[in-house]
Amino acid sequence: MDGKLHALENRIEGRMNGVEGLLEHIEMTVDGLKAESTFNSLPFLVVSFTDLCEAALGWFAFELEWYDTNYANFAQCEAQSVSLFVQYLTNMKGDTIQVGSKGNGQENGNSLTDTSDLYHPVWGQMENYALGREKRRQLLLMLCQYEADRLDVWAQPTNTKESSSRPKISADKWVEYTRTAFSVDPRIALSLASRFPSNTFIKTEVTQLVQENIVDVRNIPEALPFFITPKAVDDNSVLLQQLPHWAPCSITQALEFLTPAYKGHPRVMAYVLRVLESYPPERVTFFMPQLVQSLRHDEGKLVEGYLLRAAQRSDIFAHILIWHLQGETVPETGKDPNSGKIKHCERYPLFLKLKEKSNSVKQEVVVLIIKVRCIPGLQSSQSIRCNEKTLSRVSINMAVAHITLSSSICRDIILVLSNGSFLELLPAVRQRIIDGFRGKALDIFKREFDFFDKVTSISGVLFPLPKEERRAGIRRELEKIELDGEDLYLPTAPNKLVTGIRVDSGIPLQSAAKVPIMITFNVVDRDGDRSDEKPQACIFKVGDDCRQDVLALQVISLLSDIFEAVGINLYLYPYGVLPTGPERGIIEVVPNSRSRSQMGETTDGGLFEIFQQDFGPVGSASFEAARQNFIISSAGYAVASLLLQPKDRHNGNLLFDNVGRLVHIDFGFILETSPGGNMRFESAHFKLSHEMTQLLDPSGVMKSDTWSQFLSLCVKGYLAARRRMDGIITTVALMLDSGLPCFSRGDPIGNLRKRFHPEMSEREAANFMTHVCKDAYNKWTTAGYDLIQYLQQGIEK
User: Where is average pLDDT lowest: 43-47, 485-489, 745-749, 793-797?
Assistant: First the structure.
C-alpha cells in the first residue's frame, strides 16, 4: 500500500513545516510591517520581509494538500494567521507604476529603470524591478486570499456560508498570474493549475510555458500532463524526447499513460516502465489488475517485459500476477458439437455500431453493448449459426465480425472483437513466468498453489452431497490437506503466513450454483512474533466473478490511505479479495463481525437498542466509544459510497464489528449499475437509515453534536478525496475494457469525475457534501429497499 499515492505523507510533512515556518514569520514580523513602510524605504526590514515572502511563496510551490491535527483550534488559528498576512499584503504600499501598452513599467519615485537584469532572491528574474515586484505581490495576495478561504473551510467544514466574496478575475489577469508564477518558480504555476483545475486560462498558459521551457522543468513530475497528451502521441511530438531525462512520477500518474489514449507510444511506455521499475515489485502489486488489463494494448510487449522482469525479482509479485492472469481467463465450456448451439458468456463487452437502414429519411446511429463468449476453437473466417431470432449469420476473422440481424429493418453491424488476442496472451504470459522459476522459487510456487488449489477444489466435492452432509464433507477434505512448509501465505494477504487449518471451521455457504465454503486458518505476521497466532477466515468462491469487488476495494483502500495520510479520523476496512481462476476467488472475512441481518435474528430492537445490549447504557464509556466508532466508520463509507455508488445495500451487506464499526461488503452493483434492471431505486448516495440516524443524531433533527461531528468528517473526507481525484479515476479507468458489469452502461468514468466536482471551490464542495448527507438522512427509498429485501429474500430490516 505504501507506494499507491507517491510520497503523500512526505508532501504533507513538508507542508506542515511550511505552515509552521509561515506562521512563525508572520507572528515575528507582521506587527512591524503594519507600519507605513515599503520594502525599499526600511532596509532593516529587508531580511525579515524577504524571509516572510519566501516562506509564503514556498507554501504555494507545493502541491495542494489537506492535513488534520489533534490540536484543538489549530485549523482556525492557521486560517486566521493567513488572513492576517492577507491584510498586510492588501495594505502594503507599493511603488506607483505606470504600465504601458507593452507592459513596460515606469516608476514614479525611486528610479529602478536600470535594474533590468536584477535577480531578486524572492521574486526571481525581473525585467523591471518595481513592476515585477508589484506583479508578484499581487500574485501572492491572490494566492493567500484563496488559501485563507480554503483553510477556513477546513476549520469550519459545516459552515455553509461563503467566508468572503472575491472579485471575479479576468482571463488576462489569470494569464498574468500564471506567467508571474512561472517566472518565480515553475512549481508555483503548476500548483496554480492544481488549485484551479477547471480554469482553462491557467491550463492553457501552463501548457504553453511548460512546452516552451521543457528542459527547465524536467525535475518536476507534475509537469508531465502538460506535454504528454494524446495529441502529442498522435503527432509523435519532439517534446517526448525529453522523457528519458524526466524525474519519476507517482505510480498512479504513470499508470494513466497506460490507457489506450496514449496508444502505447514507445517513449511514453519507456518512461512509465522506468517509473514502475524504480519501485520494489511488492509495492506495485496493488495495481496488478490494471497492469494485466494494459496487456490489451501492449503492442510493443513493453508491459509484458516489465511483468516478467518483476516476477523474476519477487516471488510474491509473480504469484499474484499468475492468480490475476488466471482470473481473467474464461471457463472452458465451449460448444456442444451435437447441438450446434454456442453457449454464450456474459463477461466481455463487445461494442456494436448500428446504422439503421429504412425507408425513413432519418438515419439513426446507435451504440449497443452485448456480452458474448470468445468461443474456443473458432477459426478465422469461420461462419456459424445462432438463434435465428437474434442473429442470422456471423462471420468472424479474429478482428471484425459482420452481423446481420433478422428483423423488419435491415441493420448492418460492425462488431469489433477486442478479447480474442488478449485471452490467447494470458496463458502464454503465465507459462513464461512459471518457466522462469528456478530452485527455491519453483518450490514455493508449487507448494503455495497446490495447497490453495486443494482447498478451493473442496467446493466441487461438496456439490453432489445433500446439504445436511456438506459440513462433515468439508471436515473430511480438510483433514486430507497437509501444510507443506512454514512459508505458505494467504493469497489475499502475503504478510500473513499460514501456520495451520482449523479443520472444524469449515462452513458451506448458500449459493444457487456452486458451493462456496468458509474456512478459518491460523496465521502469523510475516515480520512479527511467530508465536502470536491469530485466526483468519476466508471464503473460497467458485462460479462467481469477484474482480469487480477487487476494483471497489482498491478505491476504498486508496481512500483509506488518503484519510490516514491527511490525518482524518475516518475508518474504512478494505478486506482482501483475489481472483484465483476463471470465476473463482478468495475473499477475506471481516474479523469479529456480524451482518446487520444476523443481528436482527436475535433481537427485535434497532441498532440503538442493540448497541445498548452490546456496549452498555447510553452515556457509559463503552457505549460512547462504540458510538464514536460507528460515527467515524459511517462517515468513511459515506464518502466511499458517494464515489463508488454501491447499490443493493440491504442489511446482509452491512457488517458491524465487535467495537461498533460499520463495514460494507459485496460490491456486485457499483458505478452505473443497480438491481432490478438498473432501476436505481436506492436514490440516496449512501445508506443512512432511521436506525442509523438514531445513533448518529440523538436529536432526530440534525442538531446534535454527534451529527455535527459526522457531517464534519464527511466533508473533510470528501475534500481530501478530491485532491486525489486523478489517481482514483485512473485506477478505475484502466479497467474499462475488463468486461466488468459496472462498465456495461452509461458513462461510468465521466460520472465518477462529476461526483468529485472539480469545478467547485472548496466551500462549494463542502456544501455539496453537506447536502448529500442531509438528503440521505432517513430517506424513504432506503427504508423501501430494506422492506423489499425482507419481503423477497427474508433479509432482516
Answer: 43-47
What lies within 8 Å, CB to CB, of 370 at 6+ separation is 349, 350, 352
Burial class (CB in 10 A: 0-12, 13-18, 19+), 365: exposed
- For residue 666, CA distances in Å to 23, 504, 510, 574, 727 come to 47, 26, 15, 11, 23
Q: What is the pLDDT of residues 243-252, one digit of tens each?
A: 999 999 999 9
Among residues 29, 80, 77, which one has the least CA distance to residue 54? Answer: 29
- The DSSP H or E segment spanning 554 is helix 547-566
Amino acid (1-letter code) at residue 426: L
What confidence score (pLDDT) does residue 164 get? 65
Q: Per the structure block, which three cell numbers stand in for 258?
A: 497506460
pLDDT one-digit tens code per residue, 686-710 = 889 999 999 999 999 999 999 999 9
Is the dihedral angle over the CA atoms 338, 339, 342, 343 positive or is it negative? Answer: negative
The domains of the chain are located at 1-166, 335-373+375-416, 441-543, 591-793
CA distances from 442 to 439, 446, 491, 545, 738 (A): 5, 6, 17, 28, 30
Cα–Cα distance measured from residue 126 to residue 611, given in angstroms and rounded to the nearest whole number: 66
Closest to 405 measured CA to CA, from 416, 394, 395, 390:
390
Q: How far apart (Å, rounded) are the C-alpha atoms in residues 411 and 408?
A: 9
Q: What is the rounded CA–CA span in Å between residue 750 and residue 733?
A: 10
Cell of 384: 456459424
Residue 413 has pLDDT above 50, yes or no: no
Residue appearing with cell numbers 461488503: 665
* pLDDT tops 80 at residue 459: yes
Q: Which residue carries 468458509 as its cell?
A: 518
Q: Is 154 within 8 Å of 716 (Cβ atoms)?
A: yes
Contact 245, 718 (CB under 8 A): no
> Contact at 8 Å (CB) between 496 and 485?
no
58-105 per-position pLDDT tens digit: 789 988 888 888 777 888 888 888 888 888 888 876 544 444 434 444
Q: Which helix (H) or strand (E) element contains residue 546?
A: none
CATH label, 591-793, candidates 3.40.50.720, 1.20.1250.20, 3.30.450.20, 1.10.1070.11:
1.10.1070.11
